[in-house]
Amino acid sequence: MTRPDALQAFRVARTWFSGGRKIDLGELAEELGVGRATLFRWVGNRDELLGEILWSLAERVFDRQERRGSGTELVANTVGDFVRTVNADEAFRRFLRTEPERALRLLTTKASVVQRRTIAKVAEMLAEEVDVPPLPVADAAYLVVRIAESFIYTDVITGGEPDADKARQAVLALLGP
């Protein structure tokens, strides 16, 4: 049997999350046969671990080799794909339903690894694909991500239906032709 490590802890926690099991660090430490202090050194607190799990579900959209379009169309398509992917993930939707305040804090605040990394990925795309963004790249990336968030968390925020196509259209409206 291999000795447990941070990567194994992450994999077990992600499997639990995907299966609908609440992540409890005490139970995870027990499952791995390590102390809570060791687990904390490896993965941080529960929120930090959940942030990494959530990012692992979302980042694949940005790391795809297949790209649809170029310029503002590519950015808008990628944002639409991001919103669609996140909205289609049942584990993510379950987490949003069962722990909405924690989910929004982990996903949409400045402390969020998910938001910070998403903004960085969008900024890279904007810098590569858009000749003259309507704002400085960092500001435009932030605004694009907030648009995406608006159409991911619509049900929690306003009770409406999440809509990837509206996110795509809004990004196109912001960035122009």
UniProtKB/TrEMBL annotation:
Lineage top rank: taxon: Bacteria
Native organism: Amycolatopsis minnesotensis
InterPro entries: Homeodomain-like_sf, TetR_C_36
Ranges annotated as spanning the membrane: none
Protein name: QsdR family transcriptional regulator
Pfam families hit by this protein: TetR_C_36 (PF18598)
Span of domain QsdR TetR regulatory C-terminal: 70-176
